[in-house]
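Question:
Now give any protein.
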Amino acid sequence: MIETNPLIALAAYLLAIVTSALLLRAVPKIARHLQHSGESRYASIDGLRGYLAFGVFVHHSVITWIFLRTGVIDFPPSNFYSMLGQGSVALFFMITGFLFWSRLLAQGRNHDWLAFGVSRVFRLYPLYLPLMLLVFVSVFHLQGWQMKEPGLELFKRILAWLTFDRPDINQYRHSGMLISNVTWTLAYEVFFYMALPLAGLVFIYRGSWLQVVLCLIGIYTLYQVIGWEHSLKKHFLASFLGGIAAAYWIRRPALVTWSQSRLASIIAVLALVIAFTAFSRAFKTAPLFLLGLFFVIVASGNNLFGALKPRSIRWLGEISYSTYLLHGFVLWLMVQRLPLLLNIDARETAAYLPLVAVCTCLLILISSATFLYIEQPGMAAGKKVVHWLRQRQKGEKRLPEKVAR
């Protein structure tokens, strides 16, 4: 049975890694990009991202298989396949908490909030907007380009999708399933980004008690405002704390030294194995503790016996946002729409597995292209916008000086 056989996931990972390795050989631009990435302070985390994003794809592949055979959308019966989705997302949240809290600790009051805000917008939206357009076009194509609701309602749907919500488009049921509803995690990311300066004022900058109270009220207000539309859950947000804990962990040389030992590698692997086999949900105390223990060891630079070090894995990490965001749509096209055109019964194992194999290779190819030609230019554009804003600020400061003279 596909939904309980872990060898299916192993084969999918191997195929993705081979595809990535072949791309590294065939596309010099990719090899150049990775030339110095292995020297990154957080190279192990870069490798981890690749496993996580592809794990979510495997998780949704199994859910899609169950849906095609039963008509029910539910978690897989296997703890392992359930945790490939939930556990991977929890670790993604930890990565976010770690990277940005570490930056706050390092930069203190010199943290560039303007650059932070602009960079987040230009990190999330350049790829998301084309995907959103694809979803809307696909829905209207399936409906014969007929408007089934007033234009004002459609406009409201567009605004909701722009904030990473997924209401039905033009009365097409379960529109979010075209992308496996993956954007729910982006709402949590956005909440973390918006709450970060307030949390910094409470826990790092430490002003007056009134400032602390006002910031805590601000964080709660943000939680209510964003949660009003996205139903934010506290136990999901708790996973960010694992990353914040790791940010403090790596500032203790003795802990870092231990974390890079062979014993720590064994403990990290055991913690991950137990979390992925003993539990079916990640966002509970015990599995979050195990995942947090695993993460602080990886964040300290442990490459888990070399598993996070290969260039092919690091490239999967580089394209992880594309892989995460696009895999649902690629999966929908390949295993739900294409079989209808080719008159293939995707409910048969002999048909479904080859389709997922092709989907795997295609996903890595597409994600590589979107990273190089959408994500990278988007991030570069964000830096240019920050530079332009800085120049404009300098110009506005000089103007009063000239007037005063």
